[in-house]
């Protein structure tokens, strides 16, 4: 990535405190839905150059830095060219978030510079998370079977996605101190006391938010969390504990099975019908039309299918390169173009209608390289096992939520991708400073 020469950050206490506040704001989106992360991301990068400018000579040796920055320049250039060259000045919607990879290398360097204080920032984050959960959890509403909205978000679905991310983070925050040994420091004791409560409250709120997409994502994330336990403690004890946690969750689900089925049952039934029709050889377009027209299809599912039908029409117009910021003009010409909104409720469609299969492929390469880069840092013992597992679990969780929600167009998703990019390049810098050449 980038080689640097700098004076210790600890020499200025004010910078340490200000940096901590900025990093807290940068990771705040799972708790409070706002655009604060955008401003502080720019502030962190600008502040880095103003206070201790890095030397960037080594950037030419890292292909991943070039790929991220090259894609960012391409996304900006395409947006500007389309806007200037189309008669209607097509501006699309949420287009510039695809230029965020341009910031990944520099944000990773800013994170590396602040590495001595990350542990304390995370501790403050989880204390704030616990306080917000205790205050915002609508206990009576959830227990009555009605829908509730956790944390501070625009709707229950966004709150459920955020609660899932906080839950995964709290679990591995706890596990990190299990690696180091409990009760050795004040922070480890804080994690031992607060992380289990955060975990339980997040599960409770996710159930209460009644987001089927988050329930699906959690059905993959929870087993991953449970079966990572044997990597920390005796394998037999770990598997027993994982089984006990799984049994408790299953028992809780059984106790509220009626409410779960009331929420998800109609969608499961309609989806099963779609699968049966598909196995019978019905074409995808016809299948969507039939399911949308069926009176047995739940309204929420019908609306999503209309959105996905429209997205397929737009995608088919330019499957390789996508339609850029002209997609929104094409959207209004689709069969269900009068649906009233253009949030596609599928993160992958959001990508391919703009940048086609090429864009999806490039972003998949970047993400795969990120995971490999972080794994290398873990293998070289430059980051903890908990950090690596948390990285993988959170990515997997969010990728599943993208199947039914456009979380990459929300504050949660935008800030998340900025952070996973920053962590990957943090690992790049750690590998370089450890004297090892980046090969991935």
Fold and architecture overview:
By secondary structure, the protein is an all-alpha fold. The protein has one domain (9-255, 347-433). The chain is 69% helix and 0% strand. It contains 17 helices and no strands. It has helices at 13-26, 36-51, 63-85, 104-113, 118-136, 139-143, 156-180, 186-209, 212-226, 235-255, 257-279, 284-293, 299-317, 327-331, 347-379, 385-401, 411-433. Helix 1 (13-26) packs across helix 5 and helix 7 (156-180) runs antiparallel to helix 8. The longest helix is centred in the C-terminal third of the chain and has 33 residues, at 347-379. It is globular, with a radius of gyration of 23 Å. Mean pLDDT is 87; it is low at 1-8.
Shape: globular
Multimer state: single chain
Q: Largest sheet, described in full?
A: none
Low-confidence stretches: 1-8
How many DSSP E strands? 0
Proportion in β-strands: under 5%
The helix-and-strand class reads: mainly alpha
H-E string? HHHHHHHHHHHHHHHHH
Distance from N terminus to C terminus (CA atoms, Å) equals 12 Å
Rg, rounded, reads: 23 Å
Helix content: 55-70%
The domain tally reads 1
Q: Total helix count?
A: 17
Q: Mean of residue pLDDT?
A: 87
